[in-house]
Amino acid sequence: MLRRMSCSPRRFALVLSLASLLLLGCGRATTPGSGAKPPGAASPWKGKAARGVHDAELAALARAHWQWRMQNAPVWATTLGDRRYDDKLGDGSWRAAEARQKERLALLARARALLPRAPRFAHARDRATLALLVGELEAQAGAHRCKMPLWDVDPRGNPLTQFNGLPRMHSVKSAEHARTLEARYRLVPAAIRREIADLRHGLQQGLVANAESVRRVIAMLRSELAKPIARWALLTTPKRRARLDDAGRARLVVALEPIVAGPIRDALRAYLALLEKEILPAARRGKAPPGLSGLAAKLPGCYAARIRLFTGLPLAAAELHATGKREVARIDAAMQALGKKLFGLDDRAAVLHKLRSDPKLSFDSAAAVEAKAKSALARARARIAKFFGRLPKADCVVTRIPDYEAKFTTVAYYSRPYADGKPGEYFINVSEPTTRPRYEAEALAYHEAIPGHHLQIAIAQELTEMPAFRRYSGNSAFVEGWGLYAESLADEMGLYSGDLDRLGMLSYDAWRATRLVVDTGLHAMGWSRKQAIDYMTAHSALASNNISNEVDRYIVWPGQALSYKVGQLEIKRLRADARHKLGARFSLPAFHDAVLGGGAVSLPVLRQRVAAYLAASR
Questions:
Q1: Alpha helical stretches, state H, 449-498
Q2: Phi, psi of 428 (to 5 degrees)
Q3: How many angstroms separate the Cα of 82 from the Cα of each of 33, 70, 73, 87, 152?
Q4: Which residues face 2 on adjacent strands?
Q5: Is the separation of the CB atoms in 585 and 549 below 8 Å?
Q6: Three-class SS of residue 108?
Q7: What is the pLDDT of residues 503-539, one digit of tens each?
Q8: How far is Cα 326 from Cα 330, in angstroms, rounded to an integer?
Q9: Using an 8 Å Cβ cutoff, are 414 and 429 in contact?
Q10: The model's pTM
């Protein structure tokens, strides 16, 4: 999984790994205008925003669209090396989101006006670029109807996780960078107060989160607020990461500490009080469905829009549910066969119980979790040249998930390389190591790092012949589909240590298949949280704490869990078709280069790219 992507733009820290794929998609982001430097300020993206675009009108649109995104996402802009907006945080309010929707629709109208001319474009890349722009803007415009800033309370995307990530994304290499980081810290309390106002406004409309998600955020906030300020990530991260001399770092921390200890802590306390006294008492609980099913009457068409947002396709929930069940049945049989070979057990439930209950199959320390991740990454790095023609220049490293979020988040995620030289990071959860199965560790590393997310995202960022949005944005089904495809590709690459690790690979495939069933169940069919947990427990070997965290993730992030299987199945289908049509001329490295060589495209555009590869290969 990428760095906890979400379309709730108040989670700007979470979205950056997928290069702001959905940052502007359905609510909290940042508004243009107030964050801009004077018109004379030079943009580092001049000439790059429309790189490789030949049609003049399309190039002008690509530049306007990219500038709009930079202004609307100033922190993302910082990580990309555009530091014109370094002293801005942005307005993540619902009012600002409504203004952004008008701007988005104006851009969409310009893009649609070019469609009649598209067949006559001289370059195929221009046709693909226009299709991607239209698809992205349409999907984001549709998702606006979900009004998530008015009711969404998420353990993965709340003021604490959001702003604790700010000093990681705002690199400090000079006194000016230190000044602008301080300016951003001063804007945090107002941003939190706007979120409080939005949630109150949503409550008045009968829009409210589910109780379990609210309880988890409350627990997270209480834990952080109980810690001494000196241990807060808002202070420890700048102290550790600022590229200043000792005196410069000391001055920075001295400047930031009163802001954190005063206005920011007060704002977090106010947010906690809101959740405890107003939101939790009204939150959906008991027989009320925790997913979008419980809000369907107030948010008509929301889940369909979320499906489109994350898959790029107009798929029906019932169709996805059925696909998930077919995939679960297929993987169940494979797991049972391998379980019999390994353990001599004929019953799938017995195999799953063995995997969950045998302490020898889990880690015994945080250090062991980290060491396994590093060894898997090293093994993959040594093998990729035989399976890919194009390789990324950026490195990938293993990093532990911070303690403040480890208990409430998933097993791992990936954070992309930044323009300041930060490498790609494979974040691993080392909390409660005895609940972290050894047999899952390798599949996890191959998904999140190499040949998965790091390979795909770092390559995309280095496609300097592409317009900027194709390098740093992308379709979720492509990105997560590639990550899941990479898990089985790793077996072909000879990366798994043995059958036990392959069983972990199957369990992870089952995990993503159950997501199709569970996500549609929660958001279209009225499933309860317990139904979702029970289904995942019956069909995957995930530990119980991971399953509960995952289900809570799906509840607050409707549609995102669909990306994995939808994308994986399409990539596998295209590969099988290419192998069939090319026969002995089929080259796996060439196929991979065709898939990855256009950035994280939509699945329809991916089909066109593979068709072009087939034509050239013939």
A1: 453-461, 468-472, 476-492
A2: -120, 145
A3: 16, 8, 11, 12, 30
A4: 414
A5: no
A6: helix
A7: 999 999 999 999 999 999 999 999 999 999 999 999 9
A8: 6
A9: no
A10: 0.91
